[in-house]
Amino acid sequence: NHFPSELSGGEIQRVAIARALVTEPAIVLADEPTGNLDTKNAREIFNLFRQFNQEEKITILVATHNVKLGYKSDRVIQLRDGRIEKDESVN
Question: Considering the entire predicted model, what is its pTM?
Fold first, then answer.
């Protein structure tokens, strides 16, 4: 019940994710989805991704500089200078 200008950064991100997921895609590509969020909201976004991945079997590929959040994924591929530096299963 808010106008877009009244939404917080976390709310705007959740709306964008909901819009992307409502069509039930097989894969979601998310480029820095938490880049402008505080720690709490960034964690909530990653938790939403995990929930949709586990419950709806949607593949979610996230590009992030937040290494800590990246390791909440099933797999982490780290790039440096355009090359794969590390590729590991983590969960």
Answer: 0.77
